[in-house]
Amino acid sequence: MYNRGIRGATTVHRNEEHEILQETVILLKDIVDRNDIIPEDICSVWITMTQDLDATFPARAIRQMSGWDLVPLMCSTEIPVKESLPLCIRLLIQVNTTKSQKEMKHVYLNAAKALRPDLLTDSK
Protein backbone atom coordinates (compact mmCIF):
# COMPACT_ATOMS: atom_id res chain seq x y z
CA MET A 1 0.00 0.00 0.00
CA TYR A 2 1.05 3.54 -0.77
CA ASN A 3 -0.34 6.88 0.29
CA ARG A 4 -1.12 8.85 -2.88
CA GLY A 5 -2.49 12.30 -3.48
CA ILE A 6 -5.30 13.01 -5.90
CA ARG A 7 -5.96 16.61 -6.91
CA GLY A 8 -9.09 18.23 -8.16
CA ALA A 9 -10.58 21.67 -8.61
CA THR A 10 -13.77 23.31 -9.74
CA THR A 11 -15.32 26.75 -9.83
CA VAL A 12 -18.66 28.27 -8.94
CA HIS A 13 -20.47 31.22 -10.52
CA ARG A 14 -21.37 32.95 -7.25
CA ASN A 15 -20.37 32.99 -3.59
CA GLU A 16 -23.53 31.18 -2.52
CA GLU A 17 -23.81 28.39 0.03
CA HIS A 18 -25.88 26.07 -2.13
CA GLU A 19 -23.59 26.37 -5.15
CA ILE A 20 -20.40 25.83 -3.10
CA LEU A 21 -21.84 22.72 -1.43
CA GLN A 22 -23.21 21.35 -4.70
CA GLU A 23 -19.99 21.80 -6.71
CA THR A 24 -17.91 20.32 -3.89
CA VAL A 25 -19.99 17.13 -3.97
CA ILE A 26 -19.86 16.92 -7.77
CA LEU A 27 -16.07 17.26 -7.75
CA LEU A 28 -15.53 14.75 -4.94
CA LYS A 29 -17.86 12.16 -6.47
CA ASP A 30 -16.09 12.51 -9.82
CA ILE A 31 -12.67 11.99 -8.22
CA VAL A 32 -13.89 8.99 -6.23
CA ASP A 33 -15.59 7.41 -9.27
CA ARG A 34 -12.64 7.91 -11.62
CA ASN A 35 -10.19 6.49 -9.10
CA ASP A 36 -12.41 3.67 -7.84
CA ILE A 37 -11.93 4.52 -4.17
CA ILE A 38 -14.16 4.38 -1.11
CA PRO A 39 -14.14 6.57 2.02
CA GLU A 40 -12.42 3.82 4.04
CA ASP A 41 -9.38 4.13 1.72
CA ILE A 42 -9.05 7.87 2.33
CA CYS A 43 -6.59 9.23 4.91
CA SER A 44 -7.77 12.82 4.69
CA VAL A 45 -9.13 15.53 2.41
CA TRP A 46 -7.63 19.02 2.30
CA ILE A 47 -10.09 21.56 0.89
CA THR A 48 -9.17 25.09 -0.09
CA MET A 49 -11.18 27.95 -1.54
CA THR A 50 -10.16 31.26 -2.97
CA GLN A 51 -10.71 34.22 -0.66
CA ASP A 52 -13.75 35.40 -2.63
CA LEU A 53 -15.66 32.34 -1.33
CA ASP A 54 -16.86 32.62 2.24
CA ALA A 55 -20.54 31.65 2.19
CA THR A 56 -19.97 28.22 3.80
CA PHE A 57 -17.49 25.50 4.62
CA PRO A 58 -17.34 23.02 1.71
CA ALA A 59 -16.55 20.23 4.20
CA ARG A 60 -20.21 20.43 5.28
CA ALA A 61 -21.26 18.89 1.98
CA ILE A 62 -18.76 16.05 2.26
CA ARG A 63 -19.65 15.34 5.87
CA GLN A 64 -23.29 14.75 4.83
CA MET A 65 -22.36 12.11 2.24
CA SER A 66 -22.95 8.51 3.25
CA GLY A 67 -19.82 6.90 4.71
CA TRP A 68 -17.82 10.15 4.93
CA ASP A 69 -18.55 11.04 8.57
CA LEU A 70 -15.19 9.69 9.86
CA VAL A 71 -12.94 10.95 7.04
CA PRO A 72 -10.72 13.78 8.35
CA LEU A 73 -11.50 17.02 6.48
CA MET A 74 -9.74 20.38 6.66
CA CYS A 75 -10.80 23.66 5.03
CA SER A 76 -8.53 26.58 4.32
CA THR A 77 -8.19 29.58 2.03
CA GLU A 78 -5.82 29.76 -0.91
CA ILE A 79 -2.89 32.15 -0.98
CA PRO A 80 -4.22 35.38 -2.56
CA VAL A 81 -2.06 35.46 -5.68
CA LYS A 82 -2.89 38.34 -8.02
CA GLU A 83 -4.77 37.32 -11.16
CA SER A 84 -5.33 33.75 -9.93
CA LEU A 85 -8.49 31.86 -10.85
CA PRO A 86 -11.42 33.28 -8.84
CA LEU A 87 -14.31 31.42 -7.21
CA CYS A 88 -12.27 28.21 -7.06
CA ILE A 89 -12.58 25.17 -4.80
CA ARG A 90 -9.64 22.75 -4.67
CA LEU A 91 -9.38 19.27 -3.15
CA LEU A 92 -6.34 17.20 -2.24
CA ILE A 93 -7.39 13.67 -1.32
CA GLN A 94 -4.81 11.45 0.37
CA VAL A 95 -5.68 7.83 -0.31
CA ASN A 96 -4.21 4.45 0.61
CA THR A 97 -3.88 2.42 -2.57
CA THR A 98 -1.83 -0.15 -4.43
CA LYS A 99 -1.99 2.01 -7.58
CA SER A 100 1.02 3.92 -8.86
CA GLN A 101 1.18 7.71 -8.85
CA LYS A 102 0.79 7.58 -12.62
CA GLU A 103 -2.55 5.78 -12.23
CA MET A 104 -4.10 8.54 -10.11
CA LYS A 105 -6.76 10.44 -12.07
CA HIS A 106 -6.88 14.11 -11.17
CA VAL A 107 -10.10 15.97 -11.98
CA TYR A 108 -10.55 19.59 -13.04
CA LEU A 109 -14.05 20.87 -13.78
CA ASN A 110 -15.64 24.08 -15.01
CA ALA A 111 -13.22 27.02 -15.32
CA ALA A 112 -10.66 25.12 -13.21
CA LYS A 113 -9.75 23.15 -16.34
CA ALA A 114 -7.43 26.08 -17.10
CA LEU A 115 -5.31 25.18 -14.07
CA ARG A 116 -4.08 21.92 -15.56
CA PRO A 117 -4.57 21.81 -19.33
CA ASP A 118 -2.13 18.89 -19.45
CA LEU A 119 -4.78 16.77 -17.71
CA LEU A 120 -7.76 17.69 -19.89
CA THR A 121 -7.97 14.20 -21.37
CA ASP A 122 -8.94 12.95 -17.89
CA SER A 123 -11.45 15.69 -17.06
CA LYS A 124 -14.94 16.49 -18.26
TrEMBL record:
Keywords: Amino-acid biosynthesis, Aromatic amino acid biosynthesis, Isomerase
Species assigned in the record: Paenibacillus shirakamiensis
Domain of life: Bacteria
Enzyme class: isomerase
Name this protein carries in UniProt: chorismate mutase
EC number: 5.4.99.5
Catalytic reaction annotation: chorismate = prephenate
Cited InterPro entries: Chorismate_mutase_AroH, RutC-like_sf
Keyword Amino-acid biosynthesis: yes
